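Support case: user asked for a sample of complex input and structure output to validate their parser. Sending the pair below.
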Amino acid sequence: MTISVASQKGGVGKTTTSITLAAGLGRQGKRVLLIDIDSQANSSKVLLADYPQISKDNTIFATILERKPLPVHPTAIPGVDLVPSHILLSNTDIELTTAKDHREARLKAQLDPIAGQYDHVIIDCPPTLSWLTINAFTASDKVLVVVSPGYFELDSINQINKTLHEVKEYFNPSLELLGYLFTMSDSTINSRTSLQILRQSYTSQVFNTIIPRNTDIRDAHFNKTDIFNYNPHALSAKAYQSLLEEIRL
Amino acid sequence: MTISVASQKGGVGKTTTSITLAAGLGRQGKRVLLIDIDSQANSSKVLLADYPQISKDNTIFATILERKPLPVHPTAIPGVDLVPSHILLSNTDIELTTAKDHREARLKAQLDPIAGQYDHVIIDCPPTLSWLTINAFTASDKVLVVVSPGYFELDSINQINKTLHEVKEYFNPSLELLGYLFTMSDSTINSRTSLQILRQSYTSQVFNTIIPRNTDIRDAHFNKTDIFNYNPHALSAKAYQSLLEEIRL
Ligand SMILES: Nc1ncnc2c1ncn2[C@@H]1O[C@H](COP(=O)(O)OP(=O)(O)OP(=O)(O)O)[C@@H](O)[C@H]1O
Ligand SMILES: Nc1ncnc2c1ncn2[C@@H]1O[C@H](COP(=O)(O)OP(=O)(O)OP(=O)(O)O)[C@@H](O)[C@H]1O
Ligand SMILES: [Mg+2]
Ligand SMILES: [Mg+2]
């Protein structure tokens, strides 16, 4: 299954969720491909020790802008490969505008031939609803929308739903929402209210599993590793573990 | 003075800082224009009660895509006007690509004629380094870069510096960094380490004022108001107050 992890709202935990799901699945013995399509390249910088030496032709830049096969790199996590991103990806919208081909399907065209080698593909999306996110959705079976506490965060769901429906109508009829994941939950009234509003508005589509705010996650990223490797007993590691069980990937 | 509040990293506090600085200056009796150039329109939704009824022709969409004058709306905060954003702004990169004019200066062209009516102009930027951020930087005197604790957040400074220097070289020679604002500071080792790294790397350019993580901020946004109006005694309100004194606007 190919899953896009998305939200237009910045800083809600898209990269964290992508890395953690990929690592969790890899540790279960599954073959996983993590695709970083955000020009910040946060997933790439955590999982590829030699990321700074990688040229743009060896990143997803080559696939999106030059329609070349996906450059796949092994990572230190058992079973997990990665297609890294590149800062020049931020020029994609500009480049794709005048493309004559199906610009929404550049990722899909290169993913389809290799997807069979993996049990799961996870796509870490940028905090925008640009051609990159449209490419990710066109290549995906499901979208996992990440929401953290707050007014802006809840408000962002409307727009991502519109984008999901547009891609489903025009480019990928089988695209479905996997669910809404509530992250960075804390003990404040604001967090509880946010979760309540989310559950009232979207009921069955909200995962039962909640990811707590847990500084171990940030520490894991500083150490360029995933939370299972950094501290498997961390509250957030256990929560992501139960999310994997809930999604039954 | 015109200040862009920016970072490619999502969720670091750009919108919060923009709203709070504008509100703080307004309460000091200054005339302030807040420009929302992020298609999420978070600043707009907090400060304009009638935002949902506003058509795209009455937002910055008209300025950026149709080169019309900036639509200025009064807000409930004394002295603060707002130019709202619109979701269709997310198509800007696509639209501006084939523009024959100076596409980096569409905002500047319409801001210059009215900037004199205000003591300060603040621009809330999106979490991307696209034509919208380039327009904001081209129209600005200074850039305030927001950083919250974490590896991704610290890493994002390199790229925003590159964009600042590119705009300075090609479009706006007088553009300068105002400084780095550390926000959402908490009592974790990770937060202390992040601040230490920031201060070691950028020393004199880091504001002395630190903004603490403080749930009152999120509550203020839920109540569609600024922190000074919601709880002037909140830790974060006092911190933003001391930031205003430190910047001496
Ligand atoms: N459950 C959590 N508890 C505490 N910190 C977290 C948690 N999840 C993520 N973080 C931290 O919060 C910050 C934002 O998370 P992350 O970068 O994954 O979000 P994102 O949605 O990918 O951001 P962007 O929109 O910039 O791509 C990071 O510093 C990350 O380490
Ligand atoms: N000092 C703070 N303490 C606690 N919460 C905060 C603080 N500053 C901002 N927030 C909250 O954190 C979230 C992210 O802040 P904000 O939306 O201002 O960031 P942003 O950089 O504008 O995000 P984006 O990249 O999506 O534009 C919001 O829910 C906001 O209410
Ligand atoms: Mg990310
Ligand atoms: Mg914002």
